[in-house]
Amino acid sequence: MTPVMICLKIAAYEAKILLRSWGFRIFAMLGLLILGLMSAGIAAPSFAFPYYFRSLSGSIPLFSFKLFNVYQGLIVVFMASEFFKRDRRTDSTQVIFSRSFSNTSYILGKFIGVLSLFLLMNILVGVITALIHLFLSDTPLSIPAYLNYFLALNLPTLVFLIGLAFILGVVIRNQAVVILLGVAVSSLSLAALGNKAYFIPDIFGFHMPLMYSDFIGLGNGAQILELRLPYLLLGLGFVFGTVLLAKRLRQSPWTTALSGALSALLFLSALAVILSLIH
Prior knowledge:
By secondary structure, the chain is mainly alpha-helical. 75% of the residues lie in helices and 0% in strands. The protein contains nine helices and no strands. The chain has helices at residues 3-19, 22-43, 59-89, 93-97, 103-136, 143-172, 175-193, 221-245, 253-278. α2 (22-43) packs parallel to α5 and α8 (221-245) runs antiparallel to α9 (253-278). The radius of gyration is 20 Å and the shape is globular.
């Protein structure tokens, strides 16, 4: 079996385990319900929300994706760090680690499994919001606005927080501490630092000006890319860094060395983008 197939098998297994988790099910159902109700309240003309909430075609998806981004960001750390605790609790770690596959395949498979479920959740959020937008709102539906918000807001946040949870999980090896640190970093960014230093500490993109216009699009696309790209690069760097720190014999030295090189390159690239923003 090729490394790619092994990685996909591990990803499918991780996704199935998370789908069977009542924590994820409750998170998904509660999030979709609350978001659907709030989006309907903003979109419907009969509700007393200010008109500027629904005067532009990008306002409804912006509200929806920003709200869900914060919600999923506070939950994803718990879900992403769950497999470390689960492997130790079920005493299945030695059985898994004794198999002939590389640490890279194992960690990337876990990463893809967790990421795929949350990407599915974001797709469902987009579909639900689009249906509400189409049938309840007077503003036209703009598909590019939905795609831009997902790529600019939710995807970098997901990759960053999953990668952060992974590397904290292998370093600290205590899920409660990992969750506490993840929530603390997220809360600090959201409540105190998000609107400081040119929005660089804004993990969620919550404070950034992102209103989409039918005439000019986002308008500040280059600046948004510079602000959000470091989180995508750092998240991937954390994932490849986890490969180096995993407590397992390295089955493939060259893939481990490649993971280390990629991790260093991704961290340096993120640092270069941040420095270019500051200067």
